[in-house]
Amino acid sequence: MERVTNATASAGSVPRKIHADRPARTLEIDWADGHHTVYDFVTLRWLCPCAFCRGEAGMPGWLDSRPTLTDEQTRMVDIQLVGNYAVAPSWADGHHTGYYTYAVLRDRCPCAEDVARRNASPVQASSGHLAHAPEGEAAPKSEEHQ
Hints:
It contains four helices and eight strands. The strands form three sheets. The chain has a three-stranded antiparallel beta sheet with strand order 1-2-3.
């Protein structure tokens, strides 16, 4: 998927290129500010922002129970653009309601530089979704491309 810049978004949260590498189970994003992000599919599923996974109306979401994710729950079968602001992956278990905004994907980048930036900041990032992910699940598994 190629993205055209959106003049209303900050340069850091505008993707230039989005590539879902299904065999490697990674989502790669090249950002307008030159940064490169790689999410493995397990980490991406833990970031799911939908009401079922995150909760709503004061009720906890499914991910709050810290489930063990199955292969079907972490195998992406499709990904769609949502306007000029998000992507919506579809998972092999049928889950497809999470809209991952570019701002959150850029903010929660799992690279060492961004993890250090978040850890050094006294203010928690507004997206906080990685708090649900078990430690050590953010490393990409392969360089192979589809």
